[in-house]
Write a structure and sequence with these properties.
Elements: H1 3-24, E1 32-37, E2 43-46, E3 61-64, H2 77-88, H3 91-156, H4 164-191
Antiparallel strand pairs: 1-2, 1-3
Length: 192
């Protein structure tokens, strides 16, 4: 059982435990308030008898507080409905909201991870495309060098000089290769 399942079980059992605990505690409506006056004449109120100093316990007055009652008239308007709903909301509803918030955060985290993975994948594709263009540029440059070497051979050999058509064709091919290199290079520069 992983930690998330344990957390879910604890969140489900917590309201039951809290309800049982609160049902056995005395209600605050029945709590007594104690009043005493210290040697300086200051009046003190407390709901805990043990917090009263020993020397003042013989003069303590017990004040019974009436239990709070619900308002006799209904609360009107949207604001009143919100307050009424908040007061009626118990610990179980709060726990359910917390569970929902945890689920929402888990979904958001999953979405963030997926987005990060997609971004990483897009960057890897972009890098591969860039490397492919660089490889193509390198291949085109090799072809240009080979054609230039062939031109030099034609130019340096007096017997082959007469093949001017081949020389012109090589020139055109070299110019086309240069244009391809420039196009690829401008694409690479635009990506940066």
């Amino acid at each position: 059982m992983n930690n998330m399942e344990k957390l879910k079980k604890m969140l489900i059992l917590f309201p039951v435990f809290l309800f049982c605990l609160l049902s056995f505690l005395p209600t605050f409506a029945d709590a007594d308030t104690f009043k005493y006056i210290d040697k300086n004449g200051t009046i003190h109120f407390t709901d805990r008898y043990e917090s009263i100093p020993q020397e003042y316990r013989n003069q303590v007055q017990v004040i019974k507080e009436p239990a709070p009652q619900a308002p006799s008239q209904p609360v009107e308007g949207v604001e009143g409905q919100r307050k009424g709903a908040a007061a009626a909301e118990g610990p179980a509803q709060k726990e359910m909201k917390e569970i929902e918030e945890l689920k929402k955060k888990e979904v958001e985290l999953k979405a963030a991870r997926e987005k990060e993975a997609k971004e990483r994948e897009a960057q890897e594709r972009k890098l591969r495309a860039r490397q492919e263009k660089e490889r193509q540029i390198e291949e085109l440059r090799r072809q240009i060098e080979a054609k230039q070497a062939e031109q030099r051979t034609l130019y340096s050999n007096p017997l082959l000089v007469r093949d001017r058509n081949r020389f012109i064709i090589l020139n055109q091919e070299i110019n086309e290769l240069y244009q391809q290199v420039q196009t690829l290079q401008s694409q690479l520069d635009a990506e940066e």
